[in-house]
Amino acid sequence: MITLADVIKVYREVDVETIALRGVDLRVARGEFVALMGRSGSGKSTLLHLLAGSDRPTAGSVIVDGVDLSRVDENLRVRLRGARVGIVQQSQNLVPFLDLEENVLLATALAGRPLDRPAARAALIGVGLGDRAGHRPEQLSGGEQQRAALALVAATRPAVLLADEVTGELDSGNAATLLDLVARLHADGSLTVILATHDPGIASRAGRIVELLDGRVVADRRVA
């Protein structure tokens, strides 16, 4: 489902070079729930950006759902991201001038699915936001915006969900609610979940924990 082979990512700015990933090898099977652990700067977010197709590796291959994202052009990577990858992060990419229902409909259109208002409303109801469908993102709390992002995932049914430190700015109650929703989406089908976190308690919700340090995989273990 997901294969990273000898992935290297180097960022260059003028004469400064930063190596974010150093020869990462990783395989994730369809339907797995994997937590990426590591402190800030370990390479977690860089790895997620490569899997999302929003960046490409300096060397190595990144294969997601049978497509090598390191070899396709930007237009195809954008289309694949809309159709096959759902992304939830601290800073949400909800369209600010659209209400929640319209955001869900836009996401389904970008994923190449037919527009379906009842299905969009059902996705929002599923994350507890049925009564907020007509609200814009700015009218929501941080926890509600995170749940809205999961409604987009529920509506578009991607192959992969990437979550980047999604509970970092939430209180314990909202964090638990969000993780319960992620677990429910994962349990409903063949969704592959990769969740980046520095919190061992959150990582324990996954079935597998992969630890990064200085751009390298230093541990890979199943959760008992």
Structure explained in plain terms:
The structure is a single chain. The protein is of the alpha/beta class and 224 residues long. The chain has one domain: P-loop containing nucleotide triphosphate hydrolases (Rossmann fold), CATH 3.40.50.300. Helix content is 34%, strand content 30%. The chain is built from 7 helices and 10 strands. Helix 3 (100-110) crosses helix 4. It starts with a strand and ends with a strand.
Rg computed from alpha carbons, rounded to a whole number of angstroms: 17 Å
How many domain units? Answer: 1
Strands side by side in the biggest sheet: 6-7-8-3-9-10
For the record, give the distance between the C-alpha atoms at the N and C termini, rounded to a whole number. Answer: 23 Å
Strands, count: 10
Overall structural class, as computed from helix and strand content, comes to alpha/beta
Helix fraction, binned, reads: 25-40%
CATH class: Alpha Beta
CATH topology: Rossmann fold
Q: Which stretches are low in confidence, meaning pLDDT under 50 for 5 or more residues running?
A: none
In N-to-C order, the SSE pattern is EEEHEEHEHHHEHEHEE
> Any idea what the shape is?
globular
For the residues shown, what is the average pLDDT?
A: 89
CATH architecture: 3-Layer(aba) Sandwich
CATH H-level name... which superfamily?
Answer: P-loop containing nucleotide triphosphate hydrolases
Number of helices: 7
Question: Main sheet?
Answer: 6 strands, mixed
What fraction strand?
A: 25-35%
